[in-house]
Structure formats: structure tokens, C-alpha cells
Amino acid sequence: MYDLLRNAAFVLVAVLLAFSFYYGFKTRRQTEPVARGLFQSKQNMAMGLMLTVLSVYPLYLMPGSIIRMLVGAVFLVIGLFNLFAGIRNYAIYKSRIR
Fold first, then answer.
1. Residues 92, 54: contact at Cβ < 8 Å?
2. Which is nearest to 87 in space by CA: 43, 21, 52, 33?
3. CA distance 5 to 25
């Protein structure tokens, strides 16, 4: 069971890392501010999800020590902050298009 979760988390992190790189390149190539903000918010969402999934490793899949739990908690907090900031910014920039 743990091997399945570990492999699924690895695949999910790899996919989210690819999305993060993709949206990062798209952000840097855009000249229009609204499109740039949309791609930046998508990058934030991908990075937030990636950090949230990475927090699963030390919190649930490894035997616990205080340092691992702290690292997992920090990754979880930063990941959730990036996710919610990306969702908020996406809604703001999406409303500027219409």
C-alpha cells in the first residue's frame, strides 16, 4: 500500500513539476500583463500542489521524527499558501479579460 502511495506521489510530483516549468516559460515569454498574470497564477497553483504532495512524504510515508514532521508541515503550509494565492490571482486576472 505504501509503495503504491509513494509511486503515485512521485508521478504526481513529476507531472506538477512539468506544469510548473511549462507555465514558467509561458509567463516569461508573454508581453501582455493579463496573460502574464494568468500564466503566473497557474504556475503558483502547480507549485502549490507540488509542495503539498511533497509534504506527504515526510508526514505520512516516512517514520516520524521531529525534523521530518517540521519539514513536512512547512512544505504543507507553503504549498497551501501558493495554491490559494494562485487561485485568487487567477480569479482576479480572469475577471479582467471579460
1. no
2. 43
3. 30
Residue 88's contacts (CB-CB under 8 Å, 6 or more residues apart) are: none
Give me the number of domains the chain comprises.
1
For the chain, helix (H) and strand (E) counts, in that order, are 4, 0
Question: How is residue 4 written as a grid cell?
Answer: 503504491
Cell 498574470 -> residue: 37
Closest CA to 90 of 39, 29, 23: 39
pTM greater than 0.85: yes
Residue 19's domain comprises 2-97
At residue 90, the 3 state secondary structure works out as: helix
Give the pLDDT confidence of 32-56 residue by residue, as tens digits. 999 999 999 999 999 999 999 998 8
